[in-house]
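re: ur question from earlier - yeah i can do the single chain one, its not a big deal. heres the input i used so u can compare w yours
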Amino acid sequence: MPQSFAYILNQRPFRDSSVLVDIFTEDYGQICCVARPARKRGKILKGSLEQFRYLKIQWIGKGNVQTLTEADERGRHNIPPSEMMLGLYLNELILLFTQHHIEQKKLFSAYKYTLHKLADPVINRQILMRFEIYLLATLGFSLDLPAIDSTNNNQVKVEDKTENKGKDKANSRYIFTEENGLVAEQSQPLVSNGIFIQADLLLALQDIQSMQESHWQTLRVFLDKVLARLAPRAINTRKFLNL
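and the output i got, formated as C-alpha cells:
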C-alpha cells in the first residue's frame, strides 16, 4: 500500500458522501483519489482534507483515480486570510504544471517552504516568484543566465553590460518560446511571438538577494506572460491577485 507525505490541492463532491481529491505527494507527484471522510471518527477526518495541511497519507488501487485510505495530519500552515489566494494560486500551478505519478521531491520541498513563507506578507510576493522560477526550471525552462549562454554558445558577461551599454541592443535581450526556452535575441531574429526579457534582469537574478524593486516588477510581468503561455488553460486564481 503506497504512502507519502502530501498536501491537498483541491477537492470536489463525488458520489454519495465521497469526494474526489487532487493531492500533491512527496514521493509520487500529483495523484487523484476518491475519499469518504468522516466527521468525528475514522482514518480520514473531513477536516484533514482541507488545503495547506501537511499530511501522511495511504491509498490503494491502480489507474487514474485511486482510493484514499488514510490521512493523518502532521501540521498545518497558518496562512493569513488576506494571503489565502496566494496559496490557492500555488495549488493551481501545481495542478496545471505537474504530471501524475511522477516524483517531484525537490518541487514538493519548495512548495512546502513557500507555503510557510506566505505567512509573512512583507516578502511573500518575492517568495512566490522564486517558486515560479523554480517551477519553470523543473519544466526545463531555466532562467539561469550562465546555463542559457552555455546552451546558446553566446556568453554575456557583467562587464559587457557595463562597458558596451547600448552598443548592440540584440545582445541585451533574450527571447522565450515554448520550443526553445530562453535564447539570445540575435540567434532567432525572425521570432515574432516570443516573450522578451532584458539581459540585465537575468544578470540580477544571479544575485537574487540584492535585486532592486524595479527588477522584481519586471520579473512579475515576464513570469505572468510565460506561465500563461505554457499553461494548458487559463490560470483562474491569477485574476484575483494584485501582485
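The two ends are 42 Å apart (CA to CA). not sure if urs matches, ping me
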